[in-house]
Amino acid sequence: MRKGIMTLSAAILAAALMAGSAIAEETDTCLSYLTGQTVSTEIGRQRPIAMMFNNIYDAIPQYGIENCGVVYEAPVEGYITRLMGIMEDYQGADRIGSVRSCRNYFIYFAREFNSIYCHYGQAVYAEPILNLPTTNNLSGLSDIGEIVYYRSDDRVSPHNVFTNYQMIQDGIDAMGYSREYAPLYTGHYQFAPEGESVTPEGGQDALVVMPGYTYNHARFDYNPDDGLYYRSQYGGAQVDGNTGNQLAYKNIILQYCSWEDFDENGYLNIDPVSGGAGKFITNGKAIDITWEKENYNPDSELYCTIDSQLSHVDVHADDFNVTRYYDANGNQITLNPGKTWVCIILDSDADRIVISDDPTISSDVIDY
Where is the signal peptide (predicted)? Predict the structure, then answer.
């Protein structure tokens, strides 16, 4: 009788261990807030970084940009574009950069992802926001600059600033920043379930997307075989210097923003707060969208003020709320799981955008 009890107890114990193992396995993975894809919990619930990438011709290729789940591209002075990559899985990127300076509007985008913002230098108009205690950033011009960044000898300054995973971790430790998402953070995008595919209804064919940037002549070409948009600029494929792979994205968002000049030096005051129009492109289709800040209250707590000769900008707490995107029926758009590229478009330049069903169309159709 005792032997039977012992055998039963052993069976119960084994079942409990198996159940515990199953629970552990279930919690070992999660859906990434950046891509909507299954990743390890260690990666997907690690607070991401937002890295400023140089994007002028002398600074390509970028290194580590393929590790970014989301990339923002926005104009800076002289209509050059700068890139900001949001990345959570970058342990294997031995070299990340080249790293470039901050503009005030990029901080808003970075904070929407609850990320730690990484930059080397900044425009004066960004300083009030960078100095907020709620803005976690790793600045190359601060006391921790030499901990986080280094200059390589294979490029000329200022295009030779780089970093890597361990240096970023050392910087996070030095600043005492949390590596975990804020408790109430639930993600930026609404994704379709993995294994399902969403094609926007009533959209125009979008085999080629050219956002109309005059300096780098950026374009995306759709590959129906894998459902990805392949990125080119400066007349050739845009690749990651670490891997040699051409950058490819499942979703593209064109976000039109109002703007003005901060001063006569061409620094742009792009409005990332007030909402506007845009386009959403995925699976070979493009639709019109609108964007706005979630639960936005323009009278929320005043954080700081940016002043210049021509502009006065009050920065409020709700300015950093997550941006949501909506279709023509007012429904939040659903992205397909995968990487996303967001093009910030000056609203006065929206008519320069080309979305075509002709895969052979030349970039020359845009009057650069």
Answer: 1-24
